[in-house]
Structure prediction request, 391 residues.
Amino acid sequence: MGEIFKDDDAAAATSAVTASSAVPTAATYLNGPILVIGTGLLGASVGLGLSRAGLDVRLQDPSPSAQQIAQDVGAGTILKSGETLSPELVVCAAPPDVTAAAVAQALKDYPHAVVVDIASVKSSILNTLLADDSLTAEQLTRYVGTHPMSGREKSGPAAARGELFVANPWVITAHDTASERAIRTARSLVADLGGVPTYMDPLSHDHAVALVSHMPQITASLLASRLLNAESTQLALAGNGLRDTTRIAASDPRLWIQILAHNAPQIVGHLEGMREDIDRLISTLHHPEANGALLDLAELFGEGNAGHARIPGKHGAPPQSFAVVTVLVDDKPGQIARLLKDVGDANINLEDLRMDHASGRPVGMVEISVLPGKEAELEAVLQKLKWRVVK
Ligand SMILES: NC(=O)c1ccc[n+]([C@@H]2O[C@H](COP(=O)([O-])OP(=O)(O)OC[C@H]3O[C@@H](n4cnc5c(N)ncnc54)[C@H](O)[C@@H]3O)[C@@H](O)[C@H]2O)c1
Ligand SMILES: O=C(O)C(=O)C[C@]1(C(=O)O)C=C[C@@H](O)C=C1
Prediction:
């Protein structure tokens, strides 16, 4: 595959997306129109991001309410039944089980369009398409599988975010006969939404997401399921540890059943490895006074530290620890917006933001992550502006 864009292109498009508003900008790689089929969380987020960049986006979903809400949130315009359209690109954002059928239909319905899907699993969908006798070789050249590594623990178009994809990897799993135009168009989609294009073959992708996406979902769900029979007095003590490790346990089971079923062979090995670790931990904790038991625990936690340290930073940069400035804010409307404006005015890049509410208290705690070395400057600015900075 040739060089399609310069290295800076995704970054340039990122700034176009983040700076975008309802005003169309000419800085898009796609020309449109773009048809989004399946207008739930992901489809509506794609539509919203592209519409904000000024592109003509059409929406289609078997659920009339999903279509309508997607249109209402600004993701595009519903494609009327019988309306003719010649899209540059069709984005299939349907659940994994029905993605191959939706892609096949789109390849037939729109003979000039490139068709991509964004499902969380890739080999099973490609294999179904390759085995589909009703598809011609030409039609398959116009298909490219993709997967944005961006999402939420919510589903449906009401939860859509146009900036969902910014700075996150977006995998392009082009198959052997995909045309150069199809790959370039897939990359244009990624660039226009501010994603970081990453190329992989479908099976390598499935192996990778088994570890970095499917195992986190499984472990979060298993952990959260331990809470089912907990006393409410126990749950009242829950702090950030539990919230951080179980956020994605709120994800839609209907979607995850499909993802796990499509990627089962890749997941099982990791689960077996984890079972070995859990068995070892159980035997160690049965006899914590035994010789070597504490060393065993130290090793286990040390391995966890080492694994965590390998998670890359934004844009695939090396792992980076940010400095955190903590500010107490009154629980009043407009406080966070004012704080963010003050951080922006101080010309200090905000790398991450996290908010916590102490239950029953009229204050919240905001943790602002900045590059190491910038925290003293930010603290000084915020204190001068009378923010309550926690030392
Ligand atoms: N949720 C995430 O975090 C995430 C992240 C990356 C990729 N994905 C992938 O994106 C796709 C959509 O996930 P989502 O989270 O938006 O789910 P969702 O439930 O929010 O939306 C799915 C939409 O697809 C529609 N749909 C159902 N059957 C269809 C069909 N036959 N043809 C067209 N549309 C159909 C539904 O009506 C619904 O509106 C899935 O393939 C998922 O694997 C999800
Ligand atoms: O952040 C989340 O809520 C997600 O679960 C997103 C996440 C992930 O594992 O990173 C989940 C599944 C998708 O296929 C892609 C992204």
